[in-house]
Amino acid sequence: MKKTLLGIGISLVLAGSAAYAQDEMDHKAEALSHAGMSKTHADMDHAPVALQHAQVAMQHAKAEQPASESAKMHMDQAISHLQMAIDHAEMGHASVSGGHTDQAIAHMNMIEQ
């Protein structure tokens, strides 16, 4: 019984730590990283891989909590361009997807730390 309770307690602590780590993640940096990988693959005409990275970039961009109205505006624009990149990658339009990914990256780079 004690071992079971100890195991449950440890599981709860680890789950809480994982949730805390998730909240502390630098979502903008992750979004930029995956957007960059998406662009690289779009340039190589690898639409399916570009799509995967654009989708992950979108998840991180949506999770980012911009600190100012300007930052929010740029992140909203980045999210809009990532959605267009995803839409075009799904259609196999790698070069168009890459162009929208470039725009998303530009908007995220305009956000001050």
Structural write-up:
It is a single chain. With 113 residues, this protein is an all-alpha fold. The chain has helices spanning 2-23, 27-43, 47-63, 69-90, 94-109. The chain has one domain (26-109): Up-down Bundle (Four Helix Bundle (Hemerythrin (Met), subunit A)), CATH 1.20.120. Helix content is 83%, strand content 0%. Helix 2 packs antiparallel against helix 5 (94-109) and helix 4 (69-90) packs antiparallel against helix 5 (94-109). The longest helix has 22 residues, at 2-23. The N and C termini lie far apart (49 Å).
Number of domains: 1
Q: Number of helix segments? A: 5
Major beta sheet, specifics?
none
Radius of gyration: 18 Å
CATH uppermost class: Mainly Alpha
Topology as H/E string?
Answer: HHHHH
